[in-house]
Amino acid sequence: MNIPRQLQLPPLVAMKSFFLFGPRATGKTTLIRRQLAKSASIIDLLDSRYFLRLSAAPNELESLIDAAPTDIIVIDEIQRIPELLNEIHRLIESRRITFLLTGSSARKLRRGKANLLAGRVWEARMFPFIHRELSDFDLDRYLRYGGLPAVYLSKHPEEELEAYVNTYLKEEILAESLIRRLPPFSRFLRSIALSNGEIINFTKMGNDCQVSPSTVTEYVGLLEDTLIGFILPAWTRSRKRKAIKAGKFYFFDPGVTHMLAGTETLDRNSNLYGKSFEQFIGMELRAYLSYRRKKLALSYWRSTNGHKVDFLLGEKTAIEVKASGRISKNDFKGLKYLKEEGIFQHLVLVSQDPISTRKDGILTLPWQKFLADLWEDRFV
């Protein structure tokens, strides 16, 4: 199926060379072939012919480019041959060639002390499907199985998810020798999946996984580097109430989270459903900020007394997420306390309640209306 994506590559490469990073199977290669088919030549490093040739002689990249009929050069899976970045640097400087470099892991580039082309190449991100891209969007299906294209469109999403997780473990972790032992890492993946959207207690998680806290720190860094998860930092500038400084961890996709956690069913009235709905809104916010090139930090706020707001867009908009079909007075608490700081322009409660209201400076919106307004740039 040809599903139009929100990320537009032609305007990006018209400005500058780019890294395009994204987890495996989010659709980077498909997007390139659809949007740049006539204007770019693709060197796919998953193709053994290119991989073996350029691994042995990175300087042969120039001869391949000279034979290319286009002005834009795509190198897919650049982390497989980090040494190519020196050649790319030279060709950008000497011949002003435009490159689009894709990858699913920054770990190998950094560990190999690769030339990361600072200032010469900008960065874009690719994410799973978002609500705006799917005309037949099914929220319950998305919260259970996530938005990876092959999964969301499959008649057998659970089988696709299981295959994806196994591929990630084998290819991203074992094949690249990113960890020494798989069993403790597998235990860690289940433990952190069960704690998705929460502040990580490194000592407790280390005890659960039978590894040291420092190893948990290393594992979390590995998930970030392979784009499987991310740390949502805490906003700490509140003055009236002292804020917690530790970040929260999220996986990049709710379906992957459930597969790692061993979720069998997602009950509409469960706490797990609420966490998945929160994760969904967080993913939508990340995609919006990235695809629209908005230079705003995404963070959260929680006071030491337990008052919290799920997501903050810079210091402009505070967003609390509730999965309930009817909001209650208790749902407003975190936003009311944050409002006392007098910093945020917009205070929004997003839920599955179909009624929109505004009271005491707090706007309540159904999630569909919130996402529509978000992409109209009404909160930035």
Give a summary of the structure in a few sentences.
By secondary structure, this protein is of the alpha/beta class. It has helices spanning 9-13, 28-35, 48-56, 61-66, 84-95, 107-111, 139-145, 149-152, 157-174, 182-194, 202-209, 213-225, 254-261, 271-291, 333-339, 367-375; strands at residues 17-21, 40-44, 72-76, 98-103, 121-125, 198-199, 229-232, 248-251, 298-302, 308-313, 317-321, 346-351, 357-359, 362-366. The protein contains 16 helices and 14 strands.
What does this structure look like?
It is a single chain. With 380 residues, the protein is of the alpha/beta class. It has 2 domains: 9-125, Rossmann fold; 128-380, no CATH class. Helix content is 40%, strand content 17%. The chain has 16 helices and 14 strands. It has helices at residues 9-13, 28-35, 48-56, 61-66, 84-95, 107-111, 139-145, 149-152, 157-174, 182-194, 202-209, 213-225, 254-261, 271-291, 333-339, 367-375; strands at 17-21, 40-44, 72-76, 98-103, 121-125, 198-199, 229-232, 248-251, 298-302, 308-313, 317-321, 346-351, 357-359, 362-366. A 6-stranded mixed β-sheet has the order 9-10-11-12-14-13, with helices on both faces. A 5-stranded parallel β-sheet has the order 2-3-4-1-5. A hairpin with a 5-residue loop joins β9 and β10. α9 (157-174) packs across α13. The longest helix is centred in the C-terminal third of the chain and has 21 residues, at 271-291. The two termini are 33 Å apart.
